[in-house]
Write a structure and sequence with these properties.
This protein has 214 residues and is of the alpha+beta class. The chain contains six helices and five strands, in the order αββαβααββαα. It has a five-stranded mixed sheet with strand order 1-5-4-2-3, with helices on one face. The two termini are 13 Å apart.
Length: 214
């Protein structure tokens, strides 16, 4: 697959090209509930390409909501899905008029719908960070996403809206950083790829995954 993705040289910024990660077992077999209590939520995405992204209420990265939903609408008829997974690990509290948006996963979802006019499906609230001092451990899904692939997956999630694009069989993944799709980190000098190029890169990864048959 890496050969296929590199064939899209005109679509990718090679400065920060994502590395293909591989897993022995399917990510779609990992149990996680929907926010409304549906069991084994990921299993219904088997055979599709799925973007998993960790979200919160209102934070600097929340403006990605409508961009990600636009990706869903662009590719959904080809077998693409998006799943938002709420967590307070990177933004426990919001401020000002958005003070309550991160209070519960239900409020996070309502804020997304009301403020950003988007309707991404939500999973249950999860823990993502590993903290030896508090004994906090990641949900199994995020334990594998962060540490369980081959080659090494790149380590801990750095913030809200990291994007994991999962293959149809659930055994391959491309990972994009939380600041992609916005120019916050690019403007600060922490990224070489701006939001426009990041969007092209993410689309290329989705298209490569969609070309694969299970």
């Amino acid at each position: 697959m890496s050969d296929n993705i590199e064939q899209n040289a005109n679509a990718f910024s090679f400065e920060e090209l994502p590395t293909l990660q591989k897993f022995e077992t399917s990510l779609y077999d990992i149990p996680i509930k929907s926010l409304d209590g549906e069991e084994n939520l990921l299993s219904k995405y088997k055979g599709k390409v799925t973007m998993i992204t960790n979200v919160t209420g209102e934070c600097a990265n929340s403006a990605q909501y409508p961009i990600i939903e636009s990706l869903y609408h662009e590719y959904k008829d080809k077998g693409f899905e998006v799943l938002a997974i709420p967590s307070t690990d990177f933004c426990e509290f919001a401020y000002g008029e958005f003070a309550d948006t991160s209070a519960t996963p239900e409020k996070m979802r309502d804020h997304m719908r009301d403020y950003y006019k988007t309707g991404l499906p939500y999973a249950e609230m999860v823990t993502i960070k590993k903290d030896e001092e508090t004994g906090s451990t990641p949900h199994k899904l995020y334990d594998i996403l962060q540490y369980g692939g081959f080659p090494a997956n790149g380590g801990p999630v750095q913030g809200n809206f990291e994007k994991f694009i999962i293959s149809r069989d659930g055994k391959k993944m491309y990972r994009f950083c939380n600041s992609d799709l916005l120019d916050l980190a690019f403007d600060a000098g922490n990224r070489k790829t701006n939001s426009q190029q990041a969007l092209v890169n993410i689309k290329a990864a989705i298209e490569v995954m969609l070309e694969e048959l299970v």
